[in-house]
Design goal:
With 250 residues, the chain is of the alpha/beta class. The chain is 33% helix and 24% strand. The termini are far apart.
Length: 250
């Protein structure tokens, strides 16, 4: 893979809501296989930035490029087709269905078979093969018949990432994947994320510092919508300004 290739690039991305600037002139690049974290307290603009990258809300100014394509004004589904996937803070699984059925719906939703009304899903072997591949590679195959409501919260959060992987993304954006998890579950999530294919670039928002420092190789720090600093895990961890503002030290 060409190390000079850029998976995702933001150029002076800004979002204004009336007189409020939620994201202010943010620029950075993400290369294939990168593991980058976004750190900052509530109100720093992290989730808004995710919304802008994925097309959930329009950008006021700036540019978003995904694999050399200017996607600034593209709808979300077109960005997904180009290799962008995202999870949200709120769990969105079907609790009354099994693990297998949830992944099956995710895979089917990405194919033309979702419009086929007169042929049972059991006839589409390629879809079931894809489901098995996803569940096996993520260590969920043994729990394929388990109802979602019987999984631990940590397992549910991991399965949401499996659903995001159904679109075979090149860039995976994770919005607080350990939200609501106990310490042990957060550690398991970090291990799960580190087990994902190194071909996938990951951009992660996370309040759990142990997790973000374990998963990410490079950290971006947002402060009131602006990029305060960025650098390696050690550089950010030892940055006096970051310690004072975000870690309550100094």
């Amino acid at each position: 893979m060409n190390n000079q290739e850029v998976a995702l690039q933001l150029e002076n991305v800004t979002k204004e809501f009336g007189g409020l600037t939620a994201v202010n002139d943010v620029s950075f690049t993400l290369s294939p296989g990168d593991r980058r974290g976004i750190l900052g307290p509530n109100g720093a603009g992290k989730t808004t930035l995710f919304h802008l990258i994925t097309g959930v809300i329009p950008i006021t100014r700036g540019k978003v490029t995904l694999y050399d394509q200017d996607v600034t004004n593209w709808p979300t589904h077109k960005r997904v087709e180009l290799g962008l996937a995202r999870t949200f803070q709120i769990t969105s699984l079907f609790s009354g269905l099994s693990v297998y059925e949830n992944v099956l719906l995710a895979v089917q939703g990405l194919t033309k078979t979702k419009m086929v009304m007169f042929r049972p899903i059991s006839k589409f072997k390629n879809i079931h093969d894809k489901v098995e591949e996803l569940l096996s590679s993520s260590q969920f195959w043994e729990k394929r018949n388990t109802q979602i409501k019987n999984l631990s919260h940590g397992e549910q959060r991991q399965l949401e990432i499996v659903l995001a992987l159904a679109s075979e993304p090149k860039v995976l954006m994770l919005d607080e994947p350990t939200a609501g998890l106990a310490t042990g579950e957060s550690a398991e999530m970090a291990n799960f994320l580190n087990s994902l294919s190194k071909d996938i670039a990951i951009l992660i928002i996370e309040h759990d510092l142990d997790v973000i420092f374990d998963v990410a190789e490079h950290i971006l720090v947002l402060h009131y919508g602006q990029l305060l600093t960025e650098g390696s895990v050690d550089e950010v961890r030892n940055n006096q300004q970051v310690q004072e503002i975000y870690l309550g030290q100094g």
